[in-house]
Design brief:
The complex is a heterodimer of chains A (127) and B (102). Chain A is built from no helices and 11 strands. Chain A is mainly beta and 127 residues long. In chain A, strand 4 and strand 5 form a beta hairpin. Classes of the chains: A mainly beta (127), B mainly beta (102). At the A-B interface, strand 5, strand 9 and strand 10 of A face strand 5, strand 9 and strand 10 of B.
Chain lengths: 127, 102
């Protein structure tokens, strides 16, 4: 079955760029049909969707983070990546990658779901 | 949209029937997903499209609702069900409901 695994630095200095990679195994990003998302969870808090990328390279970001987020895909490595610029302590969180399934109707999104998820990686922003 | 779960936490005993509610601020979608998260673990998909049980999820979990009001029900709470539950619609999540042991 499809599995996802996040990797990247666990500590980032304020004002720098957070960079994470999600490696997908057991399935190909290039096969299409799914969106590949990043989701974060602040310590002891709820879940915040950051953005997604499709295998074609099309992206969609959370408007609240859009100015600082870049998601890219490397289909040759079956990976997708997150960059979050100008980080502050408020960006300290567990970052998850997840596959997003979606059902469309008349060209619009009817419903979606996130499954599977990576195990998550804690990124701390601190000097 | 905003998703509001109630209650924020509850205490229950093994064997209890538990119901968690999720209310959407707008009736944009008639569908919802539910997740279970245990400490230190990633969320696990339980239900999608409001009432479709994800493969491998025990049948004691069920979902219902449409429009703006949705419900997750655990028919007979088991020890492994003590966790935090989240609803999700489009790309918004509820704030979570923590189910604790009474």
């Amino acid at each position: 079955q499809v599995q996802l695994q996040e990797s990247g630095p666990g500590l980032v200095k304020p004002s720098q760029t957070l960079s994470l990679t999600c490696t997908v195994s057991g399935g190909s990003i290039s096969s299409g049909g799914y969106y590949w998302s990043w989701i974060r969870q602040h310590p002891g808090k709820g879940l915040e969707w950051i953005g997604y990328i499709y295998y074609s390279g099309s992206t969609y970001y959370n408007p609240s983070l859009k100015s600082r987020v870049t998601i890219s895909v490397d289909t040759s490595k079956n990976q997708f990546s997150l960059k979050l610029s100008s980080v502050t302590a408020a960006d300290t969180a567990v970052y998850y990658c997840a596959r997003e399934g979606a059902a469309m109707g008349f060209g619009e999104l009817l419903y979606n779901w996130f499954d599977p998820w990576g195990q998550g990686t804690l990124v701390t922003v601190s000097s | 949209i905003q998703l509001t779960q109630s209650p924020s936490s509850l205490s229950a005993s093994v064997g209890d029937r538990v119901t968690i509610t999720c209310r959407a601020s707008q009736g944009i979608s008639s569908y919802l997903a539910w997740y279970q998260q245990k400490p230190g673990k990633a969320p696990k998909l339980l239900i999608y499209a409001a009432s479709t049980l994800q493969s491998g999820v025990p049948s004691r979990f069920s979902g219902s609702g449409s429009g703006t009001d949705f419900t997750l029900t655990i028919s007979s709470l088991q020890p492994e069900d003590f966790a935090t539950y989240y609803c999700q619609q489009l790309r918004t999540f509820g704030q979570g409901t923590k189910v604790e042991i009474k």
